[in-house]
Amino acid sequence: MKILVVIIPFLTAICLGRIIIPYILFVSFKKRLFDPVDARKFHQTIVPRLGGVAFSPVQCCLFILSVVVLYKVNFVDLGLNTAEVFPMFMLLLCGLVILFLVGIADDLVGVSYKWKFMAQIFVAALFPLADLWINDLYGVLFITYLPAWIGMPLTIFAVVLIINAVNLIDGIDGLCSGLILVGCLFLGVLFIYYAAWLHALFAFITAGVLIPFFYYNVFGTARRKRRIFMGDTGSLTLGFSIAFLSISFAMNNENIKPFSEGAIVTAFSTLIVPVFDVSRVLFVRWRDKLPLFKADRNHLHHKFLRTGMSHHAAMIGILALATFFCIFNLVAVQYISNNIVVLCDILLWIGFIFVWNAVEIRKKRIRAKKLDVLHG
């Protein structure tokens, strides 16, 4: 019976997304609100970029409505300490509204990175304000309990990093929405396992509204006016949403879920690909003495495309990589220490990048030889 707590809102979110996105497409074409076409973009046709407008309203309204119905009908005992958990969700919804407004402003008229960064820090600070922060590393780096004066700033830094990592990974169709969809389903199932029903509810609502967007983003065609991007409105709010779910799962708090030894490693498994990729890109820019925040074509999806893979193949490959890390970490923490699992993650990532760089070089040499033959 309890599974209906998440299944019904999940299906409702899918239906609402399916209804709302065509209206966003209609308004976007009517008012000519398109993603600009330039040398850095892969698309060369007009495509609306306001798909993310559908996310936060569905997340906030459907979550609140579901919680009210649950408490009014009272057909299932959620076993929650509402005084402890509700402030976390109230400030989550507050942060989503703020990032929603910032995202729309950026998608329509542009917002300087300084103001976006300040907004990200502000919403990240809402988590510690609601007593949601990383208070335990579960033995990672041989550290367990974290005092508030360390854990709270660490949480703010982690939230800002996650939001930007999700925003920067949004480079090809279906990639950002697919990664967050995988993360929400993964964490949502784990929250169900630990009977953290409100967190599972939010995770599945987020996953539900992403499914119709994923379809329009990946399989929609620009010629039929059925293709759409999420824009910063979507990537900012999705980054904040997955940060909330990951930190909630990682926090050692019995009012959220029972203690589990590998919680922090499992929680951030869903973010390994975007966070590691952003870290790698920033390191390469620093090493080559390039501006750290200047856009380039060195992200993971660019590397996949340079080997000749199609956009869809690259997207599926990266989602498969993210799913592998989720499953690997979930299983590994049951048998080996968190430190070894984290080390394995880092080594696997470095090994993967090393192999892929070799593949890139080989493909580049083959193309160069073909050009030499053609011009020879």
TrEMBL record:
Q: Look up keyword Membrane and say if it applies.
A: yes
Superkingdom is: Bacteria
Sequence intervals crossing the membrane? 6-29, 50-73, 85-105, 117-134, 140-163, 175-194, 200-216, 228-251, 263-283, 313-334, 340-359
Just give the chief location class: membrane
- Subcellular localization, as worded in the UniProt entry: Cell membrane
Membrane association type: Multi-pass membrane protein
Instruction: Recite the UniProt keywords alphabetically.
Output: Cell membrane, Membrane, Transferase, Transmembrane, Transmembrane helix
Q: What is this protein called?
A: MraY family glycosyltransferase
